[in-house]
Amino acid sequence: MIAAGLGCRKGTSAEALLSALTAACVEANIPRESVSMLATGEIKRHEPGMIELAERLGLPLQILDEAALKQAETRTKTVSKHSLAQTATPSLSEAAALVAAGEASELIVARLIADGATCALARSKDHS
User: Fold this and answer.
1) Which of 5, 75, 104, 115 could lock onto 125 through a cystine, CB 3.0 to 4.6 A?
2) 8 strand-pairing partners
């Protein structure tokens, strides 16, 4: 199972988030259809672009609280000063992807930035 962790600036469009997701899938050399869920932090719960993207792709959007994101912190690979200031986690998108993909997951694409949106991909280790 592959989870896409998403982050963005306030007001980022679904198109911008989609371009970050597409770029991450290209980087991982996987079809976008192989992503089975989107994930983000509580801070982005009401972000219209995020909600629209999940609806458009027909994917569940998992909203994670800061405690869950904090637990994945040691497994994130990049540090965003903006993410640290807003969410107290070095990379919201990486932590969200890791938590959504499960405890034994690993990042397959570290935080990638496109059009003001970030996306990271994590794969659960129990499924290939």
Assistant:
1) 104
2) 117
- Starting at the edge strand found earlier in the chain, the sheet holding 2-8 runs 61-64, 35-41, 2-8, 117-124, 105-114
Query: CA separation (Å) from 62 to 39, 68, 98?
Result: 5, 12, 12
Task: Note if the pTM is more than 0.85.
Answer: yes
Beta-ladder partners of 117: 8, 114
How far does Cα 71 stand from its chain's mean position? 15
The per-residue pLDDT for 77 is 80
How large is the greatest C-alpha to C-alpha distance in the chain, in angstroms?
A: 36
Rounded to 5°, the CA angle 110-89-117 comes to: 50
Given a cut of 50, whether residue 128 has pLDDT beyond it is no
Beta bridge partners of 40: 63
Check if the beta carbon of residue 115 is closer than 8 Å to that of residue 8: no
